[in-house]
Specification:
Mean pLDDT: 84
Number of domains: 2
Helix content: 40-55%
Oligomer: single chain
Radius of gyration: 20 Å
Number of helices: 12
Strand content: under 5%
Distance between the termini: 29 Å
Low-confidence stretches: 1-38
Structural class: mainly alpha
């Protein structure tokens, strides 16, 4: 993991976390920056007065592509929905378009991603760096990045400049860019032959479900956690739900971002119309911005051990926040995360803490971090 001078990423990733996002030292040429220039300004992610949930075609298309490829990583909470590929195959068969090129190439692309030597965790975060772009704008920008076209007009608009810069720095090696090119090709074909129509057909339904999620957050969760979130500068930002995602979501927090500019992507479970799982998955993602990894560990750990610790700590952090500020919601939170790992235990505190075990000394450190001590 390298040190960089421009920006930082924190993530809730079931596997190796990016930890430090790629930046440029002044005077260094890059795919997106002329010599002597820093990165473009981070985009305004949306309304700054609250957390705003919204349907996002770029996020849903990209995560759909990665879920069909099954580009998951180890961890108790999956990056992508275990049921999504089967669900979307049935939809395609009913529409008479199965298999698409994505379905036919999924196995090869999965192997290519697994064999890649670069630090390609950024593939799981790409849409979060394009919060204001639609699917077609993002794909055009990614294609230009993959081809090294630094002066391409597709990279000049405010909707894509920042995301293009981030991806170009993360995938600067030739082999990485060729892999990106293949992913963009297959995602673009998928958009043309299937997903554009699917997105249009389901958008009204999706907006209705997101409205229920927004209402739950605004009416039940945010008012009770409001003072804590305000104190931690976590009271506003953008949330993009996706059916393709698993219980392990995505969150970015970049130093250049201002209050209200955090971006999150979380699951929208296929098996339930309830907003609970999405809202609680979002709360858990916020915990990745609260916990201090090194202070929590207290000693040197391997990268894998630290990631295991922080994933468990984030789940426990969400439960603690509700116990402190909204105790009537905590049992349902525990049930959601017990179900996420197939645990059949009751949703008691004891059962939850057995499944998501932390050493008692670490629990106390986590409590202190949440309380700001």
């Amino acid at each position: 993991m390298r040190r960089h001078t421009v920006s930082r990423l924190r993530c809730g990733l079931a596997g190796a976390c990016l930890g430090v996002l790629l930046g440029l030292d002044p005077g260094t040429a890059s795919a997106q920056a002329r010599p002597g220039m820093g990165p473009p300004p981070a985009p305004d992610a949306g309304p700054s007065d609250r957390w705003h949930l919204q349907p996002a075609s770029q996020a849903n298309l990209w995560f759909h592509t990665m879920a069909v490829i099954a580009a998951d990583q180890p961890g108790p909470l999956g990056l992508y929905s275990a049921d999504y590929a089967r669900y979307i195959r049935d939809v395609k068969m009913q529409a008479g378009v199965y298999p698409t090129a994505l379905d036919s190439l999924a196995s090869d692309l999965r192997k290519d991603i697994g064999d890649a030597k670069g630090n390609l965790e950024v593939l799981h975060f790409i849409p979060l760096y394009f919060p204001n772009a639609d699917a077609e704008q993002m794909l055009r920008a990614l294609r230009a990045v993959a081809r090294g076209r630094t002066s391409d007009a597709a990279l000049s608009t405010p909707e894509v400049r920042f995301g293009a810069f981030v991806v170009a720095q993360a995938m600067e090696a030739g082999g990485d860019r060729r892999l990106l090119q293949r992913l963009v090709d297959v995602a673009e074909r998928e958009w043309d032959v299937f997903y554009r129509q699917y997105w249009s057909d389901h958008l009204t339904e999706l907006q209705g479900r997101i409205g229920e999620m927004q209402s739950m957050w605004d009416s039940f969760v945010a008012p009770q956690l409001g003072s804590f979130l305000e104190r931690r500068r976590l009271s506003a930002g953008l949330v993009m739900p996706s059916r393709a995602l698993g219980p392990e979501g995505r969150i970015i927090d970049i130093e250049q971002f201002q209050r209200g500019d955090q971006v999150v992507a979380v699951q929208e479970p296929l098996a339930s119309n309830s907003p609970d799982a999405t809202v609680y998955a979002f709360l858990k993602e916020l915990c990745f911005l609260i916990i201090d990894d090194q202070a929590l560990a207290g000693e040197a750990l391997s990268d894998d051990a630290l990631q295991d610790l922080r994933r468990t700590a984030a789940v426990r952090c969400g439960a603690m926040l509700l116990e402190f500020y909204a105790p009537t919601l905590s049992a349902r939170y525990r049930r959601v995360f017990l179900d996420a790992v197939g645990a059949e235990e009751s949703s008691t505190v004891a059962a939850f803490e057995r499944v998501y075990y932390l050493d008692p000394a670490i629990v106390e450190k986590l409590r202190d971090q949440i309380r700001g001590q």
